[in-house]
Predict the structure.
Amino acid sequence: MVSTPSSAIRPSYATTDSHAMAIVGTSIAAPGGVDDGLDTEEFYEFLKSRGSGIITVPKDRWNAEAYHGAQPGKIVTTKGGYIPNATYGDTQEFGITPAEAAQMAVSQIALLHHAFNALQRSGVDYRGTNTGVYVGCTTGAAPHNVDITEAGAYYMTGSSISINANRISYVFDLTGPSLPVDTACSSSLTAMHLAVQAVRNGECDQAVVAGVNILLSPLETASFSQLGVLGPDGISKAFDEDANGYARGDVVSAVVIKRHDLAVRDYDRILATLVGTALTSCGSLMGSLTTPSPDAQTKAIRNAYADAGLTPNQADFVELHGTGTIVGDQYEANTAGACFSDGRDGREIVIGSVKSNVGHGEMGAYMSSLVKVVMMLERKQILPNGYFKKPSSRIQFDEYKLRVPIEVEDFVPYDVEQGLIASISSFGFGGSCGHTVLREHDVRPVLPDYETLNSGPYLFAVGGLTPRSVNTLIESYKAEYADVDPLSLSEHLGSRARQLSW
């Protein structure tokens, strides 16, 4: 069954919409932390403070100084949005032997960890269910210096791009479609689009959508350096006069989406709703494979809003691709300005780019933007750009009334009845364009018999993938949840534990 937008009415616990997707669980590791990256709560505080995750290339990646330079084989910058001291998770918790893990791409390990987090946080039933897995990724970063005599039985599954998605399906017993998606820097948005279409069409009931970009080799960075898209100082200065190229960045993230009416039926906690998606391609309009097309970008925006039953002039915030390249930002911001200002009656357009904080996560870039926008919608705050000092003279800020926030602001809808509306763009350097539209969601209502239930007694279920992990969790929960409402905690832990083996 193919669903269509029922109306532009805001999805809520009182008004369900089978065309909309409820975002019910998120997990992320973003640059900016000391070890293993920033998860959602840390990421939120980091963005509020205009934090920067730009650091010198970690020594366990490559020798930044040895590769520094402008000539072929060198890299114009020693910096980027790297996650330092990343361990990517314990594979034995997922039933993976050390021998197999030794020949697994770190992307597979990281994706397992964050898919598990997102599923657990969502509280949805997932084992043995028709759940899809869609992963924005490129070839697995398996160990590069493997001698042919050491390429054992696990090397192919450990390095195959398909296994980035398939291993998630296997470990968590998810029986829906399972596939990787590579459209370069729009990969994760494309993965989301495909997941949304699959849920709407009945191919799966819910989906894990993920993206990963972990920079382990200098090869690709050196190639991008020669292409001329990297900034020498390693900062993505999106929309700024001093923009001079982008910073490459790490990211791994996963979210769980579920048809809105089913999420309401199951009393899931809904963080935000995704109501429209669209994909386009630049074709040969610009005469260059890597030059963005304003027409294709405009079409993606308008089609996504049409899919949502809305128009672009209703947007309260737009998270642009905004990498910090001179040509890319100029094309994108002016195109978006023209599109979103049409019929807006002079209202300003607030735009942002998380890449100014953490660099460009490429294959996983959309996921960083998505987690940011979901948190903005949930907490009713506009998060500022990490770097923005002087508006670019190449972007028509005044004509289109564009504005980049530089401090935390209250996020207030123009139309209170419609609620907050925000959208996100992603573009691949081969011409693949995409846009998604999101809306705020109301807070889950309190159960009618809450007072009776809250009188106790309470059952606190703790589950893990191994007996060892259960004992570890019990100790951590004692500290983490000491001040949490006991009824809420009982429900929260119960929804997690029922999916686990121990």
About this structure: The chain has a mean pLDDT of 91.
